[in-house]
Structure formats: structure tokens, C-alpha cells
Design goal:
CATH topology of the largest domain: D-Maltodextrin-Binding Protein, domain 2
Low-confidence stretches: 1-31
Number of domains: 2
Distance between the termini: 73 Å
Helix content: 40-55%
Strand order of the largest sheet: 2-1-3-10-4-11
Order of helices and strands: HEHEHEHEEHEHHEHEHEEHHE
CATH superfamily of the largest domain: Periplasmic binding protein-like II
Largest sheet: 6 strands, mixed
CATH class of the largest domain: Alpha Beta
Mean pLDDT: 89
Number of helices: 11
Radius of gyration: 24 Å
CATH architecture of the largest domain: 3-Layer(aba) Sandwich
Shape: globular
Number of strands: 11
Strand content: 15-25%
Amino acid sequence: MIRIAARLRYPAVLCLLAALLLLAGLRVAAAEELLVFAAASLKNALDQADAAYEKETGTKVVASYAASGPLAKQIENGAPADLFISADTNWMDYVAARKLIKPATRSNLLGNKLVLVGPKEGAPKVEIEPGFDLARLIGDRRLAIGDPASVPAGTYGKAALIKLGLWDSVQGKLAPTSDVRQALALVSRGEAPLGIVYRTDVAADPGVTVVAEFPADSYPPVLYPIAELATSSKPEADRFLAWLHSPAAAGYFTKQGFSMLK
């Protein structure tokens, strides 16, 4: 009986060891996956950068894209991301004020420009200046723009329109969207004759073209701050953050029209 009991115990011990090894493996796998909350305008460039980083290091980076405002609110409500890349400093300031990032990891990663876009075929070419008759170009249709209350591209767009003296004439003709890529899509599908987006968004949709660039002094500098979230304990987050600032990552962003900031 003793020999039989001993024989029975060995398979049980082996099963237990196998289960523990499997659990350890799952924990390692989880530690090697990063979740990044990123502004929607980053999608094309960041997807390519993430794929390159995974190929180089074996670490999988999953990006969740939306307007910076909703992402900041999700972080405030406890969303378990590792890094946040905002399309403006205000929403990064928002999460920082609530002690939701690691302050020492915050930096400005990228810069961008604001443009007016139209459909690829038949779009007018204009020069944007104070008093420019944008309302006439829109006619009885709508100007596609990210919602200025929550979408940084819309916030910058509103600032530019106010500075140029155009806001009063067009604010009743807006088609606000939940992120900048949706504004781009409205123009591409012909649902809006014109839209305000980032320069980098144009490369993402062959159905649109740049009508004009907004004067650089008509809106605040477009900055993309990045930071690790306070709840992240993954060492790989530090390494990925450093890699994003490196020459190895720069090409994925500059070819989409972003400027790298140091």
C-alpha cells in the first residue's frame, strides 16, 4: 500500500510542477506585453513602430487609439495602460495633475502641423490669412473638425480660426467628430467639402489633399507628450519609451510628417 501511494503521489507532484511552470510562463508573457493609449493621429506611424519593436525585442506592444480627451478620462477611471501619448499638453497635464503618470518619464516626443484638407479631386487651392472667406468655401455644407472640447486637433483648429478672425463665420457650420481621423474620413467620403486635420493625417488617406496650411503663428505648437502611467510596473515600459526617442524609431514618424523632438 505504501508503494502504491508513493507511485500515486509522483504524477500529482509532476502535474503541480507543470501547472506552476505554466503560470510562471503566463506571467512572463503578460509582463512582455505593453498597452499604450495613443492619440488617433498616431495610428499609422505608431503601428509600424510597434511592429518593428516587437520584431527587435520580442515584446508585443498593443496600442489603443482615440482622441486624447477620452483616453485621459479612461486613465482617470483606472484603465490599465502602461504609457500615454497625448496629442496636446493639456490632456497630459490633466492626468499629471491627478498623479496618474510618473513625472520623471514625461517628455515631448513629436511635433505636427495643422492643415485644411479637401477631396483629392477638385479641391481648391487657397492661402489662409486673416479675413480669408472660409465660410464661402463651405457654402451650405459643413466643416469637418475634431470636437474642440475633447479632440486636440479641434482645439488647435478653433484657436487658429479665432486668431484669423474666422470663427464667428464658421462656428455654425461645423461637423464635430470624436477624433481627428473621423474628420478626415468625412472629407474623404465626400460628406464634408473641407476639414481641419493634422498634416500627418493626409498621408493616411489617398482620398484627400491639402488645400492650405494654417499659419504657424495662428495656433499653439502641436506637441505630443508621452509618459509612463503611475500604475505600470513593467521594466519594458522604460525600454520602449527610450526606444521611441531613438533614431531607430524616428523614421516611422518622420515619413508620416511628424517632427521628432528631443
